[in-house]
Design goal:
Elements: H1 6-9, H2 11-16, H3 20-32, H4 34-40, H5 58-69, H6 78-112
Helix pairs in contact: 5-6
């Protein structure tokens, strides 16, 4: 609510997305407020909403894909943006699976050396 413009509406949620513990909350906020957002945002801004599912969560990715496959949430360019977001999340998941243990071990050794 209030006089915020379309770009300003994204400042707080996108900043929240930089901290993994808040990513699920951010995605849930977007899905719960989609109707209000879709009325308030220009149509071309709706194509950016799949990025609220960014991060390394396969569960959130599947929820986003289901959410945006609903005809009530489809916009002309949404499939392309969902595909890009899917690639980014999948890359994150694979990187974490491949390198997560080594990074955690390095950080433990680094912290212990301080």
């Amino acid at each position: 609510e209030g006089p915020l413009g379309p770009r300003e509406l994204f400042v707080i949620p996108m900043t929240m997305g930089r901290w993994p513990p808040l990513q699920e909350r951010r995605f849930r906020w977007m899905t719960e407020n989609y109707r209000t957002l879709s009325k308030r945002l220009p149509a071309y801004f709706l194509d950016f909403l799949p990025y609220f599912a960014e991060g390394c969560s396969a569960t959130r990715l599947e929820a986003a894909r289901a959410f945006f496959s609903d005809p009530a949430h489809k916009t002309p360019g949404i499939e392309k943006e969902v595909a890009k977001m899917t690639d980014a999340v999948t890359d994150c998941i694979h990187l974490r699976e491949r390198e997560g243990r080594a990074v955690a071990e390095y950080l433990k050794r680094f912290a212990a050396s301080r």
